[in-house]
Design brief:
Chain lengths: ~475, ~200
């Protein structure tokens, strides 16, 4: 290759996947891995059938149901599958169960131990790989950037396009480096890092960019933590998030069911090592964040950019310079039932949700269990559920006895799925009630019509369950010494 | 996809600004498994009014919709384009469109025509009583009263619409290049080429 110019991680992955480039700057980009779930795929399969087209690479495609699935028991005592009550959800799930195998696509069914949220399953199965281009009809696909894959969400026509051609017509994005310097304080997790970044950049701050997260704090995160950070790249508007693969990444990927083996493994590691951004490569924009500024964080409004340290107070709408933001803040506070000047730690919650593609991996469950061990949920917390990201996470947690910690604390231990992150299955937050939630979006109605969401880390959600209000996990000595 | 050349007929004089995709198709219609039938949910809240334009004897089934600024803003749901298609709409004329919506419309063969507000005002007037004619080849919107409004369109999109080429069809013309790329990957990075085939 004659590439003498230093390149970023993003540019290297892009260049390695360009099938061809048109004169107008649009590239045909090859897609290595396509994850499919039940909500955004039925019309794509229907489109293929109508046009008499086939799935080009079923072997590069993996299907798993997650959004609609109830998180209650899926089998009765005799081992028979329980029906899904909502007929529309049942029909959407049934369509995937038929469409995927009919096209020769590997399908992980609802009762398979490998089933889970598509963004938990991909890395867990070794289907998602560093340096790969990965797409899914879901905006949180950026998640897979945590292992160094170029991963992003697409619409249904694009799902059909990838099924038929294994490519997408795309223009190159701009590049941004978000470097997190310093060292995280106690009680501060990957979720707090990404909430803080979203607060700094704003919900549209990354628009048109692919963000590479760098610096000692990102390097210090576990792979689970990196997946959490990259997962929420879309919440600050980025097309995708990326974290350079390193020894931790290789150790995470090795031995997983679809991961390379033997000579393929050695070749893969050699290539992955070459992907790091070259010294001297430049980004279109660089943002530096000091870890000392990151506290356990919580959202107060209805946009993920509405972030405060848990020690903060609700801002007055007039405190924002932008008049449109003032108006948005007024509407947010009205919807959230909050007053300017109110302390975050005085806000009571009736619901706690620990789960979602952002925070449902084993490390997240361990962090929540560490806080909940030997404690009980507060009386005013009406509904508190823990939803593992996959059957394998659930199994691992049960091996470690975490399920017992949750159940003894008065939380419900559920089956894997998207659950209360979005109101598409039976897990919803009632209108007017508050939820301390480890998910990724606090939009109006996201957890159910009228539901009020406060985004937090797993440890903070657990602390809220114990005290019945938003709580600084550090102050109450809830962390294990 | 059906090639688009001319679109003729009554135009619904809707005219509203900032019509978001939640208005075009509410969230509870996202649980379907086909693109079909979504017309039932199109503009659901507005159509609860028995006097609405969409169900009126005069405009029901009209192929053209005239709207205000920023049509299709909000959620990226492609269901908005499907809902319009199912309602029989083949073209939307407005002063501006959200990027995502116009992309989704294009991918479904719906023509989005951008015209200045003055032209929209005149078309709204004509549409009350008479048909409107859109000629994609000539890039013009005309009326029976000698009005003629020229519009711009991305040449690539025009080519695709006129040839009835959906993007998938177009990319399938590049199958040889895709196949050659796959052969290079199998050679250089075989671990990427294997997917689910590596596991038993």
């Amino acid at each position: 290759m004659a590439n003498q110019t230093p390149r970023t991680l993003y540019e290297k992955i892009w260049d390695a996947h360009e099938v061809e480039r048109r004169d107008d700057g649009t590239s045909l980009l090859y897609i290595d891995r396509h994850l499919v779930h039940e909500v955004t795929s039925p019309q794509a399969f229907e489109g293929l059938r109508a046009a008499g087209r086939k799935v080009r690479r079923p072997d590069l495609t993996l299907a798993v149901p997650d959004h609609n699935l109830p998180t209650t028991a899926r089998l009765d005592d005799a081992g028979h599958k329980l029906p899904i009550a909502d007929p529309e959800s049942a029909a959407q799930l049934a369509a995937l169960e038929v469409n995927a195998p009919a096209a020769g696509i590997r399908y992980i069914g609802a009762t398979d131990i490998a089933q889970g949220i598509v963004h938990v399953v991909g890395p867990e199965q070794g289907f998602s790989l560093p340096g790969a281009t990965i797409v899914c009809g879901d905006s949180h696909t950026a998640c897979h950037g945590g292992i160094g894959a170029l991963a992003f969400g697409i619409g249904t026509s694009e799902v059909e396009h990838v099924l038929a051609t294994q490519t997408l017509q795309l223009k190159r994005s701009k590049t941004m480096e978000v470097r997190v310097e310093g060292e995280l304080g106690p009680g501060v997790s990957a979720k707090d890092v990404v909430l803080h970044i979203t607060g700094v950049l704003g919900a549209a701050g990354g628009t048109g960019h692919v963000i590479e997260y760098t610096g000692p704090v990102i390097r210090g995160l576990t792979i689970e933590g990196r997946l959490t950070v990259s997962n929420m790249a879309i919440e600050h508007g980025a097309r995708a998030g990326l974290i350079a693969p390193d020894e931790k990444t290789f150790a995470y990927v090795k031995g997983r069911p679809f991961a390379p083996t033997g000579a393929d493994w050695d070749a893969a590691v050699a290539w992955w090592k070459s992907l790091a951004t070259d010294p001297g490569a430049t980004y279109d924009r660089v943002v530096v964040i000091d870890a000392a500024d990151i506290a356990p964080s919580v959202t107060w409004g209805t946009s993920p950019e509405d972030v405060l340290p848990i020690t903060g107070v609700i801002p007055a709408p007039e405190s924002f310079a932008d008049p449109s933001k003032q108006e948005a803040a007024r509407k947010s506070l009205d919807y959230m039932g909050l007053e300017p000047g109110q302390r975050m730690t005085d806000v009571e919650v009736q619901n706690v949700f620990i789960g979602s593609c952002t925070n449902s991996r084993i490390e997240d469950l361990r962090a929540a269990a560490a806080v909940l061990k030997g404690r009980k949920k507060a009386a005013n917390v009406r509904w508190a559920i823990v939803v593992p990201g996959s059957g394998l996470v659930k199994h691992q947690a049960e091996e470690e006895g975490l399920d017992k910690v949750f159940i003894e604390a008065g939380l419900e231990w559920r089956e894997p799925g998207c659950s209360a992150c979005l109101a598409m299955n039976p897990d919803k937050v009632p209108a007017g009630e508050r939820c301390a939630s480890t998910s990724n979006r606090n939009f109006v109605g996201r957890q159910g019509p009228g539901a009020r969401t406060h985004l937090v880390s797993p440890a903070m959600a657990a602390a809220a369950a114990v005290t019945g209000k938003l709580t600084d996990v550090r102050e109450l000595a809830l962390l294990e010494a | 996809m059906e090639p688009v050349s001319t679109i003729d007929g009554r135009a619904i004089p809707f005219g509203r600004k900032n019509v978001d995709t939640d208005v075009i198709i509410p969230a509870h219609w996202l649980k379907g498994t086909t693109r079909d039938g979504m017309g039932q949910g199109a503009f659901e809240a507005l159509r609860k009014d028995p006097g609405n334009l969409f169900d009126s004897a005069e405009f029901k089934g009209s192929p053209i919709l005239i709207a205000g600024d920023n049509f299709g803003c909000g959620s990226s749901r492609e269901h908005a384009a499907w809902a319009l298609m199912d309602l029989g709409i083949k073209a939307v004329i407005a002063p501006s469109f959200s990027d995502i919506f116009s992309g989704n419309a294009f991918k479904n063969g719906i023509l989005t025509v951008v015209l200045p507000q003055e032209a929209i005002d005149r078309l709204m007037e004509v549409a009350q009583t008479d048909p409107v004619h859109i000629d994609l080849e000539a890039q013009s919107v005309t009326t029976p009263f000698q009005d003629r409004f020229a519009f711009e369109i991305d040449p690539f999109r025009k080519h695709c619409l006129m040839s009835g080429l959906d993007e998938v069809g177009l990319t399938l013309e590049r199958q040889d290049a895709i196949g050659a790329f796959e052969a290079r990957v199998r050679e250089a990075r075989p671990f990427l080429a294997k997917g689910t085939a590596v596991a038993a």
